[in-house]
User: Which sequence fits this backbone?
């Protein structure tokens, strides 16, 4: 079975460092990015299953980053992180394709729970895609 891969995106380097260490202690491969642009660069070479994405960041904000991620990496699941939660922000993020959101400060239990939920969804999507491709290739061998 494939190992979960996480990308943490936040401009708070202390949060990134601490959370990355905790995930890695649990055996979860984790990368970090301090901005939306950095996150998009990381995703060019790192196939993250789950992306925790801060909304308020300098430069490209989380909503703009979310749009780019869902356009270019649609199977990856995004969970919004915010310290400035409003219903409008949550609804907008969900409409743009985020799976869920977490309000800072976030406990490791909440991080892990959301990561596992998102990873299960990604794994199921990949299985469905694989099955559809297998069925399609099996159908191509038939005589008509």
Assistant:
């Amino acid at each position: 079975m494939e190992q979960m891969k996480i990308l943490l995106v936040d401009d708070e380097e202390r949060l990134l460092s601490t959370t990355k260490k905790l995930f890695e202690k649990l055996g979860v491969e984790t990368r970090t990015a301090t901005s939306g642009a950095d996150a998009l660069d990381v995703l060019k070479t790192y196939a993250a299953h789950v992306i925790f994405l801060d909304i308020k960041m300098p430069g490209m904000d989380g909503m703009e980053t979310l749009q780019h991620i869902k356009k270019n990496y649609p199977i990856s699941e995004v969970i919004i992180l915010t310290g400035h939660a409003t219903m409008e922000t949550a609804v907008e993020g969900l409409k743009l394709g985020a799976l869920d959101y977490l309000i800072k400060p976030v406990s490791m239990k909440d991080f892990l729970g959301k990561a596992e939920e998102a990873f299960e969804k990604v794994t199921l999507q990949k299985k469905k895609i694989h099955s559809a491709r297998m069925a399609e290739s099996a159908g191509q061998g038939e005589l008509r």
